């Protein structure tokens, strides 16, 4: 997405969308994935294996699922998100846990307020697809990762099998808006997932971008027939 105005419009649209669903976001996640997103996030956290003395950054942290998961076994974790209501839910969860290893801040993934080479690990779950410029987001991640640092990206995927893809797109087109309407009073908020996925380069496109930027050891795992995907790479 090219010019600054288009990017700003996109950010405002995504921001309004997440503000409208923040309070029910976790519930809908459980419903639409039948709880599987917990397993995928657990595997994602394992894939980066955050050490006790290491620092991680979770971008587009939303309500904090991954932040808390990483902090459970590893070192300090910073969660950033652009959306105040999503972060507010994360802050409420943090208050209940009283975990000193976790820090939350509001920031744009395309302009991270961190030094170069600051983090050992960067994660982004269901976030990259929402950015106005995927490549700029990945370049920013590359900048804040230490040389040798690990990156994991979890997101919706495009199933390689045509039949699976067709069924999956029907599920995203019809079932998700119903969940959005039932639980958040907004069908369009969840209808947006299919729109964003159509534009997203997914498994192969993201792999190519990562390699092009200079990430190494780029590995892609198809989850549940490629309906989800996990990219793991090193700076
Ligand atoms: C689908 S949610 C994912 C939340 C969490 N990572 C999870 O897996 O449950 C996407 C999040 O990305 C955030 N987001 C979208 N665009 C962003 C941007 N440019 N910078 C930072 N966060 C952004 C949204 O506010 C939202 O909280």
3D shape = globular
CATH superfamily: Vaccinia Virus protein VP39
Structural class designation: alpha/beta
The total of beta strands comes to 7
The CATH topology comes to Rossmann fold
What does this structure look like?
The protein is of the alpha/beta class and 235 residues long. The chain has one domain (4-159, 201-234): Vaccinia Virus protein VP39 (Rossmann fold). It has 9 helices and 7 strands, in the order αααβαβαββαβαααββ. It has helices spanning 4-21, 25-32, 36-48, 65-73, 84-97, 134-144, 162-184, 187-199, 202-213, and strands spanning 55-59, 76-81, 102-106, 119-125, 145-156, 216-223, 228-234. A 7-stranded mixed β-sheet has the order 3-2-1-4-5-7-6, with helices on both faces. Helix 7 (162-184) runs antiparallel to helix 8 (187-199). The chain is globular. It starts with a helix and ends with a strand. The relative contact order is 0.14. The model has no long low-confidence stretch (mean pLDDT 94). The chain binds S-adenosylmethionine (SAM).
Notable characteristics:
235 residues; alpha/beta; Rossmann fold; 7-stranded mixed β-sheet; 9 helices; 21% strand
Task: Note the topology.
Layout (H helix, E strand, L loop, with lengths): L3 H18 L3 H8 L3 H13 L6 E5 L5 H9 L2 E6 L2 H14 L4 E5 L12 E7 L8 H11 E12 L5 H23 L2 H13 L2 H12 L2 E8 L4 E7 L1
Parallel strand pairs: 1-2, 1-4, 2-3, 4-5
Antiparallel strand pairs: 5-7, 6-7
Bound molecules: S-adenosylmethionine (SAM).
The site of S-adenosylmethionine has 20 residues, from helix 1 and helix 4.
Short description:
This protein is α/β, with parallel strands linked by helices. It has nine helices and seven strands, in the order αααβαβαββαβαααββ. α5 links the parallel β2 and β3.
């Amino acid at each position: 997405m090219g010019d600054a105005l288009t990017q700003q419009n996109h950010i405002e649209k995504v921001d309004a969308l997440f503000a409208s669903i923040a309070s029910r976001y976790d519930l809908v996640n459980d419903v639409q994935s039948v709880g599987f997103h917990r397993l995928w996030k657990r595997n994602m956290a394992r894939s980066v294996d955050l050490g006790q003395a290491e620092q991680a950054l979770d971008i587009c942290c939303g309500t904090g699922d991954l932040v808390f998961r990483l902090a459970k076994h590893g070192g300090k974790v910073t969660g950033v998100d652009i959306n105040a209501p999503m972060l507010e839910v994360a802050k409420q969860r943090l208050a209940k846990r009283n975990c000193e290893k976790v820090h939350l801040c509001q920031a744009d993934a395309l302009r991270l307020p961190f030094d170069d080479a600051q983090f050992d690990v960067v994660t982004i779950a269901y976030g990259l697809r929402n950015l106005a410029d995927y490549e700029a987001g990945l370049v920013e991640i590359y900048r804040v990762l230490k040389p040798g640092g690990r990156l994991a990206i979890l997101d919706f995927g495009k199933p390689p099998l045509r039949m699976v893809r067709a069924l999956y797109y029907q599920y995203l087109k019809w079932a998700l808006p119903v969940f959005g309407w039932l639980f958040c009073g907004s069908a369009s908020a969840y209808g947006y997932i299919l729109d964003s996925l159509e534009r997203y380069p997914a498994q192969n496109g993201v792999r190519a971008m990562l390699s092009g930027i200079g990430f190494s050891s780029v590995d892609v795992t198809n989850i549940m027939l490629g309906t989800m995907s996990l990219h793991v790479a090193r700076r």
